[in-house]
């Protein structure tokens, strides 16, 4: 037996060195696996701790701190523990000098380094047994040669945020959007989100550039105007999760809620496209780095083209999913249906990014289209499943990012603290937000009804919290000193606004005397402004006050011109501010063509398209559309109150059945008229019953 073992050792001796190498590499791979598992365990623990604390706060009705603020605070605590109480095993470094003339530039370091390593060369005279080549991936510029293992702990590739964490957050923002109030305030939302965000970005960039030039030379000499504009673009988007959660819990005025939510949803998309346009200006168009008119116009063209093309891709993918679910029987298998829904939604983001567009814009509008069209084609199981899946993913992703912001303040090796820059960034961010809100509100109030009141404007200014999008844009590139300074300032602004501003939201609501406890239906009545005219404790029995402040006789019909519910005027008279004009135009087109094409709604394309298009219309109309009752679709359509309303007098009702606009449709006003009837004196009740008897 000993002879056999000795013979085997002699035969296998030449391969021992290779085996030793494999064992060492396996040990290193195991160590890396343990470190990465520890990283994930830390964040899972943080999320679990946040969830338990949220439950405790809700149980004791604590509303001064939101879960995002909790996640940041817990992240700061855990980051400090990792930094100062963890191990500090020094990493092994080897300095390598390039031979010959480098083929790369200072601005763009090589992606990988190929290190040729001699095998078993014990001295300079003995030739190596072989040459092995190792590839090392570029990590960034080294500032501290004594880096240790802490630099590898609790840090992630920035692309993880853009490709994995951000898509479910942005998609859920579009998928759960309350379109009824969004479209009612569409003009103001677009003004704040597009004009306001762009104006704020350029204003912050200009102020920061002027202030940076007064700072120490090491920063002022390297900080360009484009760097300042990029910082303005990344710090302009808002993420008022804390404010919105409080608004939802306290049932704040729905118009204020819609303005804050709508702006935060769209300005994320605007900010990422704007930052990309600024980068294109510096990288592709400008030769000197200074302002050039031609380069500016090309970047401006990029901004609009990328935004619109990304929007079209998102809408097209949403419509494609709707067609798949309409013309196939995949709904018979709810699991497959839900899987198709999720995959098509995520592929929208990847498709836009792969075609050099913006995935954030694409997935946002994909979510809006999925909610408006595809949702109506899904089975009941898939509806519940998709809502719950994306709500859960959004919750976990948001809290993960805020936890990571706290942890990275101590563990991320690329922070660069400069007190002057940080203070200036706070001041400029506040000025930019003020310019976004107050001047644009004044312009909107010239034509807008109802006006954006002063206390609403103060709340809009205060709701300018920074969050996930600002941090993701800041951490994406941290190679230079300027970008590292931006990251540090952005992280501190996010932490301050989420914890301090978010915590003070309840106090500010009381101080500004903003009404809370407003029910959606009551708010709808307020938009019509229909109520009894009570004067001095008495009731003017013959008058009913409308939104414009004018009085109308109760005996004068509101629906139609002659008192009929389906008169020639086309139904109930609406106030001009009930819906934005763009929403009214789109709602009419959507009711006639888009809904019948992409869902099982009525009227069908056979009824809305010209007679010459009947063969195509029949091909695009399902048997379910032809046989179902129109009320069936209205019952399951969760978002059509505003989007498929039809007030143009074409004789089509909301349910598409072709009935007159006041008949056979879910009308929130009629419910409020019942409330008005119940709360009015007897004589007024009689008049209301006489006029609205058919509706009741």
TrEMBL record:
Residue ranges of every copy of the Cation/H+ exchanger transmembrane domain listed in the record: 50-511
Keywords on record: Antiport, Cell membrane, Endosome, Ion transport, Membrane, Signal, Sodium, Sodium transport, Transmembrane, Transmembrane helix, Transport
Membrane-traversing stretches: 34-57, 69-86, 160-177, 189-209, 229-247, 303-323, 358-375, 395-413, 419-444, 456-475, 487-509
Signal sequence annotation: 1-18
Top-level lineage group: Eukaryota
One GO BP annotation of this record: regulation of pH
Subcellular location: Cell membrane; Recycling endosome membrane
Similarity section: Belongs to the monovalent cation:proton antiporter 1 (CPA1) transporter (TC 2.A.36) family.
Protein known as: Sodium/hydrogen exchanger
The organism of origin for this protein: Drosophila melanogaster
A matching Pfam family: Na_H_Exchanger
Region of interest called Disordered, as start-end residue ranges on this chain: 546-575
GO MF entry, a single one: sodium:proton antiporter activity
Coiled-coil intervals, chain numbering: none
Membrane-topology annotation of the record: Multi-pass membrane protein
PANTHER family the UniProt entry points to: SODIUM/HYDROGEN EXCHANGER, SODIUM_HYDROGEN EXCHANGER
Gene: Nhe3
GO cellular component: a single term: perinuclear region of cytoplasm
């Amino acid at each position: 037996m000993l002879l056999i073992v000795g013979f085997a050792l002699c035969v296998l001796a030449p391969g021992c060195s290779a085996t030793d190498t494999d064992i060492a590499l396996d040990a290193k791979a195991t160590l890396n696996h343990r470190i990465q598992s520890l990283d994930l365990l830390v964040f899972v623990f943080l999320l679990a701790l946040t969830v338990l604390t949220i439950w405790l706060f809700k149980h004791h009705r604590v509303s001064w701190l939101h879960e995002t603020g909790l996640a940041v605070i817990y992240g700061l605590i855990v980051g400090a523990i990792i930094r100062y109480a963890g191990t500090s095993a020094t990493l092994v470094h080897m300095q390598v000098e390039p031979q010959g003339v480098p083929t790369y530039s200072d601005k763009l370091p090589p992606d990988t380094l190929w290190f040729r390593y001699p095998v078993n060369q014990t001295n300079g005279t003995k030739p190596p047994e072989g040459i092995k080549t190792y590839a090392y991936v570029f990590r960034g510029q080294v500032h501290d040669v004594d880096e240790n293992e802490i630099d590898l702990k609790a840090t992630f590739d920035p692309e993880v945020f853009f490709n994995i964490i951000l898509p479910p957050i942005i998609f859920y923002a579009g998928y759960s959007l309350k379109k009824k109030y969004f479209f009612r305030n569409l003009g103001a939302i677009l003004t704040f989100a597009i004009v306001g965000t762009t104006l704020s970005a350029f204003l912050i960039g200009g102020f920061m550039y002027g202030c940076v030039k007064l700072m120490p030379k090491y920063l002022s000499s390297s900080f360009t105007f484009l760097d300042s504009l990029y910082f303005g673009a990344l710090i302009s988007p808002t993420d008022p999760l804390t404010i919105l959660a409080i608004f939802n819990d306290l049932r704040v005025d729905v118009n204020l809620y819609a303005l804050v939510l709508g702006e935060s949803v769209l300005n994320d998309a605007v900010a990422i496209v704007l930052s990309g346009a600024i980068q294109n200006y510096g990288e592709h168009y400008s030769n000197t780095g200074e302002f050039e008119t031609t380069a500016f116009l090309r970047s401006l063209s990029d901004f609009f083209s990328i935004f619109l093309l990304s929007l079209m891709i998102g809408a097209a993918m949403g419509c494609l999913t709707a067609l798949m679910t309409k013309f196939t029987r995949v709904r018979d298998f709810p699991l497959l249906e839900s899987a198709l829904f999720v995959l098509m939604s995520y592929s929208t983001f990847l498709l836009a990014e792969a075609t050099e567009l913006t995935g954030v814009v694409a997935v946002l509008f994909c979510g809006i289209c999925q909610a408006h069209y595809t949702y109506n084609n899904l089975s009941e199981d898939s509806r519940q499943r998709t809502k719950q899946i994306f709500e859960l993913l959004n919750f976990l992703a948001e809290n993960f990012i805020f936890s990571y912001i706290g942890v990275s303040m101590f563990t991320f090796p690329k922070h660069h603290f400069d007190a002057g820059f940080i203070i200036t960034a706070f001041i400029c961010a506040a000025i930019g937000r003020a310019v976004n809100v107050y001047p644009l509100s004044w312009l909107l109030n010239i034509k807008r009804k109802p006006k954006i009141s002063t206390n609403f404007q103060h709340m809009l200014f205060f709701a300018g919290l920074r969050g996930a999008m600002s941090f993701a844009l800041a951490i994406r590139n941290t190679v230079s000193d300027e970008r590292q300074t931006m990251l540090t300032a952005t992280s501190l602004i996010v932490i301050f606004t989420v914890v301090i501003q978010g915590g003070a939201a309840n106090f500010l609501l009381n101080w500004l005397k903003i009404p809370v406890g407003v029910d959606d239906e009551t708010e709808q009545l307020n938009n019509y402004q229909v109520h009894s005219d009570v004067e001095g404790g008495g009731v003017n029995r013959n008058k009913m006050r409308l939104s414009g402040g004018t009085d109308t006789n109760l005996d004068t019909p509101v629906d139609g011109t002659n008192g009929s519910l389906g008169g020639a005027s086309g139904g109930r008279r609406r106030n001009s501010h009930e819906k934005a004009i763009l929403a009214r135009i789109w709602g009419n087109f959507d009711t006639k063509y888009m809904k019948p094409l992409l869902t099982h709604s009525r009227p069908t394309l056979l009824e809305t398209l010209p007679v010459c298009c009947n063969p195509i219309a029949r091909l695009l109309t399902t048997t379910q559309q032809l046989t179902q009752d129109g009320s069936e679709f209205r019952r399951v359509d969760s978002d059509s109150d505003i989007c498929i309303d039809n007030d143009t007098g074409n004789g089509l009702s909301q349910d598409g059945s072709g009935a007159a606009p006041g008949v056979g449709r879910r009308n929130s006003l009629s419910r409020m008229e019942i409330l008005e009837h119940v709360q009015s004196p007897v004589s007024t009740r009689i008049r209301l019953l006489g006029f609205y008897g058919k509706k009741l």
